[in-house]
Amino acid sequence: MNKIFNFQSIVIAILLVILASLVHTNNQISDQNKKLTSQISTLNTQLNKVNSSTTKIEERVAKIENKLEPKFQGLLVMSK
């Protein structure tokens, strides 16, 4: 009976160590996930700013092209 009790105690101790290890690993993964989520949010904000800036630049270039088109129609046709 004593050997069975010792075996069960060893198995329970091993399972508790495994459980503690899994909880620790889970906490590390959770922390890393929070950091990555924050970084992705920052990158998304920066990307939105770049997209907005690009759209504004494209609009300005289109306006300039529209103003120049009647004056330089011959050159524009040759470049297309």
What layout of secondary structure does this protein have?
Elements: H1 2-68, H2 73-79
- Poorly predicted runs are none
Structural class: mainly alpha
The whole-angstrom Rg is: 33 Å
Portion in beta strands: under 5%
Distance between the termini: 93 Å
Q: What's the overall average pLDDT, rounded? A: 88
Total beta strand runs: 0
Work out the helix count: 2
Principal-axis shape: rod-shaped
SSE topology string:
HH
The main β sheet shows up as:
none
- Portion in helices: over 70%
Written description of the protein model:
It is a single chain. The protein has helices at residues 2-68, 73-79. The protein is built from two helices and no strands. The protein has 80 residues and is mostly helical.
Briefly say what this structure is.
The protein is mostly helical and 80 residues long. The protein is built from 2 helices and no strands.
Keywords:
single chain; 80 residues; mainly alpha; 2 helices; rod-shaped
